[in-house]
Amino acid sequence: LKPLIIKLYRMLSSPTSNVLDLPEIDTLYTGRPVVIDFMTEQELTETYNMIQEAAKHGEGYGIDEFNSEKEFREEIRGSDCFVIKCAESGTILAGVIVAVSKFYRGHGSIADPFVIVKRTERKQGLGEFAMRTSIDFAKRLGYMGMYVDTFSNNTAIIKIIEKIGGFVQVGCLPVGGKLQNGNTVGSVIFYTNLSDVNNNVVNET
Fold first, then answer.
1. Given Cys at both, which of 74, 132, 141, 167 links 192, Cβ 3.0 to 4.6 Å?
2. Are 50 and 57 in contact (CB under 8 A)?
3. What distance lies between CA 12 and its chain's CA centroid?
4. In order of start, what are the domains of the chain with their CATH numbers?
5. DSSP for 15-26?
6. How far, in Å, CA of 138 to CA of 133, rounded?
7. 3-state DSSP: the chain helix, strand, coil percent, rounded to 5?
């Protein structure tokens, strides 16, 4: 009952989430069935822990990007948070957070996704599946475009972006974050349109 109450609270507190009828059932390319749903509070904590674990291994997140879960929650306040779970066990496989981009100096028109896959669940195409989910949901939520800001050493997500297509590299930052070993790493910034000049959603990727 508690997860249902939390789910209803999130739907009521995030108006954009009301356009999504979740949960949805889908299948990975491996044939594994998965469930996509709104995140519960506990799953948001799990997602934070997954991000911290990735940061320790220099995988897409800076070691000092979020000093605490409280800071992480403040950063994504107002975002739409989704979870990809195993359809059989209900365990979390990946997290997808569609946040409002800070690169756009306007009100909530451009998305900026947080995508994280549990380290023990990799090599199943979950990264690509999660990224495609973030794009699909951003379109359905009415965003006009999407920025993706990733570390230059994150070859996995860069390959996924190139495979999906439609993204253009629009910039880079010489200092994007700090790794576990204390070294800094640059960031690469990609952009894709999600709507045409008349603000109509473009074709699905």
1. 167
2. no
3. 21
4. 2-148 (3.40.630.30)
5. GGGGG----EEE
6. 8
7. 35, 30, 35
Reported pTM: 0.84
pLDDT digits (tens, 9 = 90+) for 43-60: 999 999 999 999 998 887
Measured CA to CA, the distance from residue 111 to residue 149 in angstroms comes to 11
DSSP output for 86-102? ETTT--EEEEEEEEEPS
Indicate the pairing of strand 145-151 with strand 110-117: parallel
Q: Which two tokens stand for residue 135?
A: 């794009």
Element at 174 (helix H, strand E): strand 168-178
One-letter amino acid at 192 equals T
Q: Where are the beta strands (DSSP E) in 87-167?
A: 92-100, 110-117, 145-151
Task: Evaluate whether 25 touches 35 at the Cβ level (below 8 Å).
Answer: yes
Closest CA to 10 of 51, 33, 36, 41: 41
